[in-house]
Amino acid sequence: GLSPQHAALTEPMAVGLHAVNKSGVQPGETALVLGCGPIGIAVIAALRARGVESIAAADFSPKRRELATTMGAHQTVDPAQGSPFDIVHPAVVFDAVGVPGIIDDVMRRARHGTRLVVVGVCMQADTVHPFFAIAKEISVQFSLAYDPNEFGDSLRAIAEGEIDVTPMITGDVGLEDVGAAFDDLADPERHCKILVTP
Predict the structure, then answer these.
(1) pLDDT tens profile 92-103
(2) What single DSSP character describes residue 30?
(3) How far apart are CA 137 and CA 185, in angstroms?
(4) Which of 3, 123, 130, 182 has CA 20 to 30 A from 172's CA?
(5) Any idea what DSSP says for residue 98?
(6) What's the whole-model pTM score?
(7) With 90 as the cut, is the pLDDT of residue 112 above it?
(8) Closest listed residue to residue 25, CA positions, set 116, 106, 99
(9) Residue 33's beta-bridge partner residues?
């Protein structure tokens, strides 16, 4: 009885679940998600499903912060107004941004013992200062994709209504409009996920 439109979101949701599983986060810990694109949103949904009681999300886009709240974030932060670390004191930080400088910034700002899970894919060279991570004993975990069980768990969570992916679907195009859809996705105020219906 699961619609193909909702089932199509299984893959990104599984990526978020895998990152949460890698983090070892516990329900009583505070989690901070940096970046509220599709993967950051998937991390938030997985945290909520895990029962994490304090989820903060940071993104420059008001629309994406609103979506983060809809998907389970308890608090959102606009990085243009200041560092999220001035407001939130997370045990676990998820980097879902994937741009140079984020990992280093987290290591500089995070508290002692923070666990950093890098799920955003940075395609460029980056520089970090290991001293900050060493001095504060920060654990850094890189996360890629998911395993078959996590894919199955994500599909089941969507099918059983534990995770509602409806708010993530912001458009639907045919094959002839795929090119334009990629252009549209560049605007975070307009889209999160656009489905392609052949």
Answers:
(1) 999 999 999 999
(2) E
(3) 38
(4) 123
(5) -
(6) 0.95
(7) yes
(8) 116
(9) 57, 94
Give the Cβ contact number of residue 82 at 10 Å.
10
Q: Scanning the structure block, which residue is given the tokens 């969570």?
A: 157
Q: Which amino acid is at 142?
A: F
Terminal-to-terminal C-alpha distance of the chain: 21
Spatial distance between the Cα atoms of 50 and 178, rounded to a whole number of angstroms? 34
Structure tokens at 122: 């940075």
At 87, the amino acid letter reads I
| Residue type for position 186 | A
- Residues facing residue 195 across a β-bridge: 172
Name the residue with tokens 């004191």: 89
Whether the per-residue pLDDT at 186 is higher than 90: the answer is no
Determine the Cα–Cα distance for residues 63 and 139; give it in Å rounded to an integer. Answer: 31
Structure confidence by residue, pLDDT tens digits, 28-68? 999 999 999 999 999 999 999 999 999 999 999 999 999 99
